[in-house]
Amino acid sequence: MCSFRPYSCPYAGSECSVTGDIPYLVNHLRDDHKVDMHSGCTFNHRYVKSNPREVENATWMLTVFHCFGQYFCLHFEAFQLGMAPVYMAFLRFMGDENEARNYSYSLEVGANGRKMVWEGTPRSVRDSHRKVRDSHDGLLIQRNMALFFSGGDRKELKLRITGRIWKETQTPDGTCVPVLCS
Question: Which numeric CATH code is attached to 37-169?
Answer without folding.
Answer: 2.60.210.10
